[in-house]
Write a structure and sequence with these properties.
The complex is a heterodimer of chains A (200) and B (240). Chain A has a single domain, classed as Oxidoreductase, molybdopterin-binding domain (Sulfite Oxidase, Chain A, domain 2, Alpha-Beta Complex). Helix content of chain A is 8%, strand content 30%. In chain A, a hairpin with a 5-residue loop joins strand 2 and strand 3. The longest helix of chain A is centred in the middle third of the chain and has 8 residues. The relative contact order of chain A is 0.20. Chain B is an alpha/beta fold and 240 residues long. Chain B folds into 2 domains: 107 residues, Beta Barrel (Elongation Factor Tu (Ef-tu), domain 3); 116 residues, Rossmann fold (3-Layer(aba) Sandwich). In chain B, the strands form 2 sheets. Chain B has a 6-stranded antiparallel β-sheet, covered by helices on one side. Chain B has a 5-stranded parallel β-sheet with strand order 9-8-7-10-11, sandwiched between helices. The N terminus of chain B is likely disordered. The chains are: A mainly beta (200), B alpha/beta (240). Chains A and B meet through loops of A and strand 3, strand 4, helix 1, strand 6 and helix 5 of B.
Chain lengths: 200, 240
């Protein structure tokens, strides 16, 4: 890539920062494409369907009866900010998938939101302790602008994969682009490989 | 909800070089850059481009900027707000002159895009006016200036982007801190009274600005009966 005249490295010695990212510090920028919805936990549901043995739908109360799971660490947004030392509480996607029992041919998932937002992931990116349905941040309810009452959390990928206001996962035997992926964003979105856009 | 993506989006182009051909001070805090892009970069009004800066050791930083110029018009125009400590915006403001080259990629984005096919209402706060300016210019270029109604919120007259061009019979400017002498509206944040005369049934609304501005504007639209599926939002984050 050609050098930009006069542009020099800014100190980013923090080894936790993937390439092209900066530390946003205390700020937590908001990025989403739709009006912020108002969802009621009394009627909120989360569904796993598609290529599973048992389609499962959980209520807000159902999910809170499951074994809790916590993620502590960083998140990375494709708009180039990263944020460290976050603590999310929720339930592991593994726990939910175990109950739905994916069929052997399931290899990808489409995450869906109550707003109509979609984003695609490989099944292996949401299993093995790498993904959560999260409803609390630093011990407090997840604010609606950050996806509350609950969002998908897949922190090893760029954060648009962590669908806000998540409503479910559909298991598929093929990959299919979600909303932003159809607009040019990368199908996988690994920040360490800087997979921001198609072709990266 | 496939209606969220109604505009055909071309595939993303690889990185290419852009030459800065003009720079103008848009407001005390923002500069507009005109870029000559040699390769294909066809876009739909509302889409954005990525600008990448590269140091001689390979270190790089990139940020997204909406096109402010209309599709099909050269040079491509972007407006950059100078953000305190912003690595890319401060470099573009302080370190870039006519003749310099930067990497560019795009267009990117599909939900916040309009092809002048039906009337819309644009609502912009501050720097969020850039993609809506592309839409307004596209509408005027297509002879459909009647298709674009625009409500712009700005702190003061000197903070209004594209001030020479943006005004017109279908543009309403709401000043939040300082209004020009004699402005009957006075000053203050956007209200229902600002938007009510502009809202029409089955007309899509495009809202762009800070997250707080977008949330306030979409709540006003909701109160005026605009359904969520007719509202598209682009939140401009502090991404430096």
């Amino acid at each position: 890539m050609p050098v930009t005249r006069g542009f020099t490295r800014r100190d980013r010695s923090d080894p936790r920062l993937p390439p092209g990212q900066y530390n946003t510090g205390d700020g937590w920028p908001v990025l989403s494409y739709e009006p912020t919805p108002r969802l009621d936990t009394a009627t909120w549901t989360f569904t796993i369907d598609g290529l599973v043995e048992r389609t499962q739908t959980w209520s807000w109360a159902d999910l809170h009866k499951m074994p809790p799971s916590t993620y502590q660490g960083a998140i990375h947004c494709v708009t180039t900010w990263s944020k460290f030392d976050m603590t999310f509480d929720g339930v592991s996607v593994d726990t939910l998938l175990d109950l739905a029992s994916p069929r052997p041919e399931a290899t990808f998932v489409m995450a869906r939101s109550h707003t109509g937002y979609t984003t695609n992931l490989s099944l292996s990116d949401v299993t093995g302790g790498k993904a959560w349905v999260a409803w609390a941040i630093d011990g407090k309810p997840l604010p609606v602008e950050h996806g509350g009452p609950a969002r998908l959390l897949v922190p090893h990928l760029y954060f648009w994969k962590s669908a806000k206001w998540v409503s479910g996962l559909t298991l598929m035997d093929h990959d299919e682009p979600g909303l932003w992926e159809r607009s040019g964003y990368h199908d996988r979105g690994d920040p360490w490989l800087e997979q921001r856009y198609q072709g990266d | 909800m496939d209606r969220l993506v109604s505009t055909a989006i071309p595939p993303v182009q690889p990185w290419q070089l852009a030459t800065i051909v003009a720079v103008r001070q848009e407001t005390p805090n923002a500069k507009t850059f005109q870029l000559n892009v040699a390769g294909p970069h066809n876009f739909v009004a509302g889409q954005h481009f990525i600008i990448r800066l590269t140091a001689d050791d390979g270190y790089h930083a990139q940020r997204a900027y909406s096109a402010a110029s209309p599709p099909g018009q050269e040079p491509l125009e972007i407006t950059v707000e100078r953000l305190p400590g912003g690595e890319v915006s401060t470099f573009l403001h302080d370190g870039v002159d006519v003749g310099d080259m930067v990497d560019i990629r795009g267009p990117i984005g599909g939900h916040f895009a309009w092809d002048v096919s039906a009337p819309i209402l644009g609502i912009a706060g501050g720097s969020g006016v850039a993609p809506l300016m592309s839409m307004l210019r596209a509408a005027r270029a297509a002879g459909r200036s009647d298709y674009m109604t625009l409500v712009v919120s700005a702190r003061s007259p000197r903070d209004l982007y594209y001030a020479d061009e943006i005004t017109g019979p279908r543009t309403r400017v709401a000043y939040t801190r300082t209004a020009p002498p004699g402005d009957p509206r006075g000053v203050g944040r956007l209200t229902m009274e600002d938007l009510a005369p502009m809202v029409h049934v089955r007309q899509q609304a495009f809202v762009c600005g800070s997250p707080a501005f977008c949330d306030a504007a979409t709540m006003l639209l909701d109160s005026l009966g605009v359904p969520a599926y007719d509202i598209r939002v682009e939140r401009f984050g502090p991404s430096g």
